[in-house]
Design a protein that fits this description.
alpha+beta; Immunoglobulin-like; six-stranded antiparallel β-sheet; about 30% helix
Length: about 220
Amino acid sequence: MCLFLFYFIPRFADVVDYSDLILPTESSGATLYPPVFRPKGPKPGPPRNVSIAEVKNGFVISWQAPLERAHLVRYYVINYKTDGIWRTLNKAQIRAEDTHYLVKSLVGGRTYYFRVVAYSLKSFENSEEIKFPVPARVKHKAITAGVVGGLLFFVVAIILSVCAVKICNKRKRRKHEKAYNMVACRITDARNGGQIPGTSQVPLKKITGEELASC
């Protein structure tokens, strides 16, 4: 006979009122709200007029706050997909007062779908989906930027190499000039009857008449 032992984990009661809770904050001071897994209660209206525009350093997704129950919005989340799976675009929660987000990593030639989700404390509401085909020139623009960056790095490396060679040659030339000047000074001193540095003169010994006769 087999006995099976079941463990029943009690379910905790849902948090109804967040006003008495102390929520964590980011380094910037923004409040981090807990994720909503089971929506319940009043929810904000859907974000409106979602659009995307190309700028110098990427693409900006913009939207407008909900017309209905906008005061319930605590933060926004942007979802995107290129196939059937929705993914989260922003890493951190977008504050309720911010209604735009900069994207830099869209791939040229690919079609994206976006939607903005407005979150309250206990529920959320999605905006309408928008379709955005990224121009193919974005890919070529990225490739061109990479090529230009590589060429600039190569040019800078050549300039630094030339400067290093010139500095080494200048030091060698100074070293040779210094050695030549030292030799020239010694020769000049010798011609003028001076003593050449580094040589020692032995004094001559006087020979008397007796020593000369004995030789």
